[in-house]
Specification:
CATH topology: 60s Ribosomal Protein L30, Chain: A
CATH architecture: 2-Layer Sandwich
Strand content: 25-35%
Helix content: 10-25%
Structural class: alpha+beta
Radius of gyration: 14 Å
Number of helices: 2
Length: 126
């Protein structure tokens, strides 16, 4: 099966040896996004909700670069350094996804790149 790299200037550039997303067949695998501002490559300021929104804005930009949108996400994984933010991330998700919501896992982790407190990756079905 072939694979094609997807890139958007509206999302942060990769900070490691990975692509923002890879299209393979009818699926696009979106790499994890942390709340980086694509212009400055710094974590956005504000509260947890602002950081969670930036994560979904970054995922949205990559999904759109692939020719899709977040409502085509079939699987979402969210990583949280504080599971106390679970309800807040659910609330933010309601602004980015329509029902039926994607299958999802929320995982508590010790740390994330650049000191972020939230990250999400996704699988998009086209």
């Amino acid at each position: 099966m072939s694979k094609e790299a997807i890139h958007s200037d509206k999302a942060p550039a990769a900070i490691g040896t990975y692509s923002q997303a890879i299209r393979s067949g009818d699926f696009v695998f979106l790499s994890g996004q942390i709340p980086l501002d694509p212009q400055t490559m710094d974590i956005v300021s504000g509260d947890f909700e602002a950081r969670a929104r930036q994560v979904f804005e970054n995922l949205k930009a990559v999904a759109e670069a692939a020719g899709g949108d977040l409502n085509q996400v079939v699987k979402l994984t969210i990583f949280l350094t504080d599971l106390g933010n679970f309800a807040a991330v659910n609330s933010v998700m309601e602004d980015y996804f329509d029902q039926p919501y994607p299958a999802r896992a929320a995982i508590g982790v010790a740390s994330l790149p650049k000191g972020a407190d939230v990250e999400a990756d996704a699988i998009l079905g086209l």
